[in-house]
Amino acid sequence: MYRILVINPGSTSTKVALYKGDKSVWNETLAYSNEQLAGFEKIIDQLEMRRLDVEKTLHKKKLDVKSLSAVVGRGGPFKPLESGTYKVSEDLLRDIRSGNVQAEHISNIGALLAHEIAEQAGVPAFFVDPVSVDEFEPVARISGIPELERKSLLHALNIKATAHRAAKDLGRSLSDINLIVVHLGGGISICPIRKGRVIDANNANEGGPFSPERSGSLPVSSLAKLCYSGTFSYAEMKKRLVGNGGLIAHLGTNDSIEIERRIEAGDKQARLVYEAMAYQIAKEIGAMATVLKGEVDAILLTGGLAKSDVLIHWIKERVAFLAPVVVYAGENEMEALALGALRVLKGEEEAKTY
Amino acid sequence: MRMTKIRMCQTKGVFLTKTFRILVINPGSTSTKVALFENIKELFMSSIMHSEKELQPFSKIADQHEFRVNVIEKSLGENSMDIQTLDCVVGRGGLLHPIPSGTYEVNEKMLQDLGKAEWGEHASNLGGIIAYDIGQEVGIPAFIVDPVVVDEMRPEARISGIPDIERRSIFHALNQKAVARIAAQELGLKYEEANLIVVHMGGGISVGAHEKGKVIDVNNALNGDGPFSPERAGGVPVGQLVELCFSGKYTEDELKKRLVGKGGVVAYLGTNDMRRVEKEFLSGDEKIKLIYSAMAYQVAKEIGVCATVLKGKVHRIVLTGGLAYDNHFVGLIRERVEWIAGISVYPGEEEMKSLAMGALRVLRGEEKAKIYS
User: Fold this and answer.
1) Percent of chain A topping pLDDT 70
2) Looking at the predicted structure, is the pLDDT value of residue A83 above 50?
3) How confident is the model over A169-182, as pLDDT tens digits?
4) In sequence order, what are the residues at sequence separation of 6 or more whose Cβ sits closer than 8 angstroms to the Cβ of residue A270?
5) Chain B contact set for A287 (CB, 8 A)
6) Mean pLDDT value across residues B202-215
7) Is A116 exposed, middle or buried (0-12, 13-18, 19+ CB in 10 A)?
8) Which residues of chain A form beta strands (DSSP E)?
9) Chain B residues in contact with A295 (beta carbon < 8 A)
């Protein structure tokens, strides 16, 4: 039985878990206060503190690292990569340390943490399907302005994990089927997956449907006008697109449970906005169906918002004609990482090299 | 006597056999088109081009009034056209407040809005005004038909991801509606019974979801969403666009030009001459092939979008506008969307005929003229 240590650094915590095969043995969340994190100028400077805390946890759990088969860390916004499970390499370590990545983000140090623990154990370190997974076809990269290339950034970890799971449930190989996978979280990613490859994606920060916290696509001339109006600074505008856009901008909350409560109580505006979000999600699914030329085996809805029955109902009524819709509510990053490593350990997939 | 005739026409069907003489006036940004129709038959059409120099003295569109009237009168004279023989005049509708689709009688309120450019400056604002002048002179009604501000969008389609930007309905309504009627008829359906996805492909591209006679959603080709087109950027990544706006590299006007006018194909390839692009596409130029295919890819995506708006109940996909002459381009779209519904292609656009037909429906009593208020 393979024993896999999973390390997932988030902005205010590090999650650590031990898996035996595909089963979780234990799962710990090491939380950090704002004061603890305030002292670090750059995110990467937190590495030492985070590593020591992970080691303490392993000690507390009496885990002998020598008993591990592999360590897997969350991948970050690295350079554009094919999807899959990657072995942490010297090149990657150098790129992370020198900041040669698409964005500074805490997930960048996941691979470093995995590497350092794996070194002690003498086992391989992996990362799985980072947000920078890029399997776009050339036509998908073109926008209407040459210097604004459409970029592939997506919730790849959950999207690919859900695709693997659905393929198994369908009794098919992922490399034989076409899927549209919809990740419904604070941001929303919608991806056509052709025989395992993610050939397009809306890029949740740049377009597609609006989401609980993001604006999605906007009429561009109106957006430009707003930018030049002098009313907002650059940082404010960015915040209006990502962070304070979408549901939060319209309704003052990004909490779907609260919004459903308001709808139940007869709040018409809440209903209109929430339904408009479902409407835009459906539209993006329709767009991606043409990318697959209508050959779609299933549409998968996943992420936290997939627990919202009313939202799912509204989406389904518009897209059910395309393909069967299957709901995999929630997301389990730890399991997704463990399973990614496990596929390689079992030899079902080959680890890719960064 | 004239007035009596119009009233009688309201009795539906009575005058189906009568011949109506309709004058059509279509002022564009660089030309004025004038045509005479007898029912749907065009007796003459003249297109008078205006150079930049001719139009330069006029700071506002409304100031071109007299200039355009003279042009039209001259054309009527050349064609020995006696306006007293007309039954109505129809002008290309201008920028008005959002209104439902249809044929509108030009009234005081409309003249005011067009004259003051209350909803924006556009050459077609003069269409309604001049039609009204001639109508008054003869004592016959003046109409406009399906202006770009036709708005039948559903409430959920209006919401964008930030509250102060509303999605608006501005599109090639005249051609979309005219072609949709023809397509429905060919399916043996009334337009009011049919679900259609209509794709107008010209300098800008609009893709409309027509549900039982209403365009319940459409990308705004002018304000930038949907596919890029020969001259427009369409939807682009919003975060990167904001970055560009704040980069200091472009003034607001320059940036707007990059979105509409100098965006899309012309930005990538330096030309918006799609016949040239098609030719070079066939010769195998890799860059041209990529841009040309990407535009088809985005048009197809927008068609998929409209299919979900119609919940998959689509009788027909209808391709129209100048780009629909390009068989290769149509082919690239077809392979991505033909699973949604059958495809009909009506290349080009017949604005003059569409305007005449809009007026004719009212003259024949098939439709009531709507009132702009």
Assistant:
1) 100
2) yes
3) 999 999 999 999 99
4) A251, A259, A262, A263
5) 301-302, 304-305
6) 96
7) buried
8) 3-9, 13-20, 23-31, 70-74, 85-87, 125-128, 178-184, 188-194, 197-198, 298-303, 325-329, 352-353
9) 339
Helix (H) or strand (E) holding A277, with range, is helix A268-291
Contact between chains at A227 and B245 (C-beta distance less than 8 A): yes
Q: Which structural domain range is residue B288 located in?
A: 173-348
**Contact by Cβ (8 Å): A217, B240:** no
Q: Are residues B180 and B316 in the same domain?
A: yes
Instruction: Decide: helix, strand or coil at residue A66.
Output: helix
B343: left (phi over 0), alpha (psi -120 to 50) or beta: beta
- In chain A, domain spans: 3-132+333-353, 171-323
State pTM to two decimals.
0.93
pLDDT tens, residue by residue, A129-184: 999 999 999 999 999 999 999 999 999 999 999 999 999 999 999 999 999 999 99
HEC secondary structure over A44-57: HHHHHHHHHHHHHH
Instruction: Say if A3-132+333-353 and A171-323 have the same CATH topology.
Output: yes
Chains A & B: contacts with CB separation below 8 Å? 224
**Interface with B, mutate which of A220, A228, A318 (most B CBs under 10 A):** A220
Cβ contacts (< 8 Å) between B267 and chain A: which residues? 144-146
The alpha carbon of residue A180 is apart from the nearest alpha carbon of chain B, in Å, by 13
Out of B220, B239, B312, whose CB is closest to A219?
Answer: B220
Q: Are residues B365 and B272 in the same domain?
A: no
Which of the following CATH numbers is that of domain A171-323: 3.30.420.40, 3.40.50.300, 3.50.50.60, 3.30.70.20? 3.30.420.40
Report yes or no on B84 lying in a domain: yes
Q: B238 vs A318: CB contact, 8 Å cut-off?
A: no
Residues 6+ apart with CB under 8 A from A159: A129, A181, A183, A189, A191, A193, A198, A302
Which residues of chain A neighbour B225 with C-beta distances below 8 Å?
217-220
- One-character DSSP codes across A76-137: -S-S-B-SSEEE--HHHHHHHHTT-SSS--TTHHHHHHHHHHHHHHTS-EEEE--TTB----
Reference A274, options A266, A263, A265, A285; nearest CA is A263
Mean pLDDT score across all residues of chain A: 96
CATH label of the domain that carries residue B131: 3.30.420.40
Contact B140, B4 (CB under 8 A): no
Residue in B closest to A209 by C-alpha: B161
Superfamily assignment of A3-132+333-353 in CATH? ATPase, nucleotide binding domain (3.30.420.40)
Picking from A279, B46, B171, B321, the residue whose alpha carbon sits closest to that of residue B333 is B321
Residues of chain A found within 8 Å of residue B229, distances taken between Cβ atoms: 144
End-to-end CA distance of chain A: 27
Pick the residue of B164, B169, B195, B236 with the most A CBs within 10 A to test the interface with A by mutation.
Answer: B236
Question: What distance in Å separates the CA atoms of residue A145 and residue B298, rounded to the nearest whole number?
Answer: 14
In degrees and rounded to multiples of 5, residue A73 shows phi and psi of -115, 160
Q: How far is B290 from chain A (nearest CA, A)?
A: 6
